[in-house]
Please model this.
Amino acid sequence: MTENKFNLIEEKWIPAADRGLVSIRDIFTDTTITDLGGDAVQKISIMKLLLAIAQSAWTPADEQEWNSFGIQGMSRKVLQYLEINHDSFWLYGDKPFLQMPAIVKADRKSFGCVLPMIAYGNSTILNSSQIERALNDADRALALIQQSSFALGGKKTDNTIVLSPGYTGKNNAEGKPSTGRPGPGLAFMGLLHSFILGSSLIESIWINIFTSEQITKMEIYPEGVGIAPWETMPEGEDDSIARKLKDSYMGRLIPLSRFMLIKQDGIHYSEGILHKNYLEGVVDPSVAVNFNSKKTIVLWADTEKRPWRQLPALLSFMQQRTGSFKCMQLGMTMKRLGHFPVFTLWSGGMRVRSNAGEQYLSGTDDFIESEIQLSGAIFGESSLFIETLNQEMEAMDGVSKSLWGRISSYHKDLKVDGKEIANKGTGDYWQLCERLFQELVDTCSTAPDQAKEYRNKYLQFAFIVYDKYCHNQSARQMEAWAANRFGFDKSLLEDKKEAKIK
Model:
């Protein structure tokens, strides 16, 4: 018999902002814990785990029950649930948390193979942070949770081990073991996830919990809430429990896309349950998707287009237009926030690239995240807020495109290929705009008629960037500089509809 060790309810292993590590129990009892720490993927993974625990303890029937129970009622239910299920949360033991003892037959790997920022195998080490180090129990628990949704696709999985008799999902067309598919929270390039955050972490969990009525309305989880896998683990990739997880909301929160067994000297690692993806009509509620286009499209994490720039798309559900993106996590929870003075919309993810089924981080790939504070007042004039914000983003984007063209044209006049320089320039421009964005959002919500006053600042930013990348020391430079710098037109700052009328 293996000794039970490191209980995730009691041990401190979850990174919290400005608090170091905290336990699951701490989160549901301490209202001074404001937010999760760690990188974007760690935040999403832990938020999904905490929501799974909360939904298992208490799924309100409807909004009335959600509101009447409140944060204290949810906390009470969760603490009772954790007491009853205490023995399901041991990281080590005969029934280790979210692990498959039978997968011990798979090859043992080092922990570095599952951590995206670690240089593994023949990967080039560029800095010391990429060097694999020994993990403590808290690190291992965090890595385990990440793998459930955000496992990288590739050959690191030992798919020669199949636990469900007759299951062929781990084989390729030739009948040989296939490469592991990416986790459903990651998909091909790295999905963008969004949540509403309150003034404390426990309030954020309460805001984001779904009612039974809401889960039914989603129409993509026929099994409803479902049963948490730590209560009843599947025995294989395609047994009755695994199939129910595929069709339940719980199965998207904790998808078990990898079967793992943690040992002191490494992990045994194989592909787990294969879930449907967005092209098959199923997504995490935290992902923005457009099912009404000719081909289903989603919002990806993009290091060159930070999440704040996708705010109009994330909030497009407020206009109730067909053919727009819908993020169920936002659409179903933001309706609760009309009386909140201020709340935060958090978006983040991890950008990856793929080659022959192998996923990895390279070049500009990285974790990204952003937070935008919004006022509950936007729900009174939601259409006006979104319309105003869209107009300002279009004006901002118009200046960006013109700036790219002007920098490129300047260098072309000097017989130099300026495309890469223009790309750097527009990147700097968007960084300058980001500093202004929260102030702009506040104006769009409280005084939309004054939002256009920011447009001259977009041009000022463009001039600053243009002068940085387009020099004017020599006579030839001065000629090219002047010819292109004064190509910026005030018409760029007009609304497109107004420009057409004129």
User: Anything to note?
Assistant: Confidence is low (pLDDT under 50) at residues 497-502.
